[in-house]
């Protein structure tokens, strides 16, 4: 199943609403939809001053390494990955369309509850991703002014 | 694959620094992290061994306001160069939008460079991609070493395809040519979305385009930038 290349404001709001519902039920701290290339699509909750780009890149990397382990063990994929810390824990659940649901939670809740509601959330998010991809197929590609090949630095 | 978020008006693009072991990929990111002052930059993350050899990847995120109305987030990754980490390189290439291929200019490293370039193409195929689709630039690094291979040799070896790409001389450890290389890669990525397509952009249709390699001496200017 191919990955998601764009999200409209409407898709984004719908996904964020699902993530917020999931957080409210599971009492987790933060949840995000990330693709397996490390892009952050949508998020809900609070991580304080954590850099979310780094978090997404590391989560995607970690899941990718685990996926490779699964393949070598003859599994098609480990559908979820759980890292337990002293005060904070992280659960990553596989979604369709090359995406992941990444959840950070603390002592207010427990892995059983988070996993239970994460399973519900993955079903709902998969539906939204399916709709987003169907919409993407009908949208005009992004076209920008300028040829970007001059000497002007894009990054300085 | 680039990700466009119309809600937050953000475009996320992934650039991977690829090359043989010890060619200077991590040094490029370390130097960029120091050199870049205007773009909003994140922390440089290195997943490395105790001996500072890249184990998984290095990562640096840059937010720029290059495009009117959009924030462009360039996510820079390196791959581990050592031969044993090939699976990891395939994983890092997932979702790549652009590539900087670093070449170690040392004569003794030419076989490794060539092997790494071939490995890049194999790993792109594993990800259902190819250098025809993905914009890339070449960086001839370590130009300050006494026994550096001449530029015409490097151009002949790595830039002798039908579509010649931009190539830059660099000394990543001192910062020379590093930002120029990244900017070229960034502009090529943005040009893929341009209203006025440019034939020099790899990844765009270029019917019957065949560019002869000009004499090597004329390719590199004082700024280190070669003609496309």
Oligomer: heterodimer
By secondary-structure content and strand pairing, the structural class of chain A works out as alpha+beta
What's the gyration radius of chain A in Å?
A: 17 Å
**Terminus-to-terminus distance of chain B:** 24 Å
Any low-confidence stretches of chain B, pLDDT <50, length ≥5? 201-228
SSE ordering of chain A:
EHEEHEEEH
What share of residues of chain A is helical? 40-55%
Output the number of helix runs of chain A.
3
β-strand number of chain A: 6
**Cα-based radius of gyration of chain B, to the nearest Å:** 17 Å
Secondary structure tally: strands of chain B = 9
Most extensive interface, residues per chain? Answer: A-B, 42 and 56 residues
- How would you state the average pLDDT of chain A, rounded? 90
Label this structure with key terms.
heterodimer, A: 156 residues, alpha+beta, 3 helices, globular, B: 228 residues, alpha/beta, nine-stranded mixed sheet
Question: Could you explain the architecture of this structure?
Answer:
The complex is a heterodimer of chains A (156) and B (228). With 156 residues, chain A is an alpha+beta fold. Chain A contains three helices and six strands. Chain A has a five-stranded antiparallel sheet, sandwiched between helices. In chain A, helix 1 runs antiparallel to helix 3. The termini of chain A are far apart. The model of chain A has no long low-confidence stretch (mean pLDDT 90). In chain B, strands 1, 2, 3, 4, 5, 6, 7, 8 and 9 form a nine-stranded mixed sheet that branches. By secondary structure, chain B is α/β, with parallel strands linked by helices. Chain B is globular, with a radius of gyration of 17 Å. At the A-B interface, strand 1, helix 1 and helix 2 of A face strand 1, strand 2, strand 5, strand 6 and helix 2 of B. Strand 1 of chain A pairs parallel with strand 1 of chain B, so a sheet runs across the interface.
